[in-house]
Amino acid sequence: MVFTFSWVHGITAGDVEDKTEFPAVFEEFHSDLEGALLLAHNAGFDAGVLRGCMRAYGVKAKRLRYLCTLRVARTVWPELPSKSLDNLARHLGLAFRHHNAAEDARVCAEIALAAASAVNALEVADLQHRLDVWRPPERAAA
Questions:
Q1: Distance, CA of 36 to chain centre
Q2: What is the sign, positive or negative, of the torsion defined by CA atoms of 118, 122, 125, 129?
Q3: How far apart are CA 68 and CA 58, in angstroms?
Q4: If DSSP states are collapsed to H, E and C, what string results for the chain?
Q5: Could you read off the pLDDT of 24-44 as tens digits, one per residue?
Q6: Paired residues of 66 in beta bridges
Q7: Domain 6-130 class?
Q8: Are 85 and 108 in contact (CB under 8 A)?
Q9: What's the distance, CA 132 to chain centroid?
Q10: Of residues 137, 131, 121, the one with CA closest to residue 72
């Protein structure tokens, strides 16, 4: 196994060598993902990683819907010089530990909620159309 980007997220090959492999983990969450709107900062990257994992393991799934909080932030707060998660967390007054999966997810949710409030959207899912940041569902596996 080739392991990269440990310098970003701090996860090493040793951290995962005895952990459950992707297909079993995906199966555990698959029913929760069907029909859900997945939030991610730079969602194209995360969707690509997920598709790559699914392709590598031969996992099939229905299309998944994503809302990119980076695209949302660029539209709602164009005056901010940086739309990185840590800068947006600071802008929104949130405590944040970057490159921690749970923290990244929480801040994505907070960004979506703050953006919905800023543009008077009825719900987070409404941001896609209200801000014209909608992306069609992506095929989870090719």
A1: 12
A2: negative
A3: 26
A4: CCCCCHHHHCCCHHHHCCCCCHHHHHHHHHHHHCCCEEEECCHHHHHHHHHHHHHHHCCCCCCEEEEEHHHHHHHHCCCCCCCCHHHHHHHCCCCCCCCCHHHHHHHHHHHHHHHHHHCCCCCHHHHHHHCCCCCCCECCCC
A5: 999 999 889 888 899 999 999
A6: 38
A7: alpha beta
A8: yes
A9: 18
A10: 131
Mean pLDDT of the chain: 87
Tell me, what's the pLDDT at 134?
56
Q: Is the pLDDT of residue 10 over 70?
A: yes
What local confidence, expressed as pLDDT, does residue 135 receive?
Answer: 53
Q: What is the pLDDT of residues 106-131, one digit of tens each?
A: 999 999 999 999 999 999 988 888 88
* Residue 127 CB partners (closer than 8 Å, separation 6+): 67, 72, 112, 115, 116, 119, 121, 133
Torsion angle, alpha carbons of 81, 84, 85, 88, to 10 = 10
- Report pLDDT for 1: 61
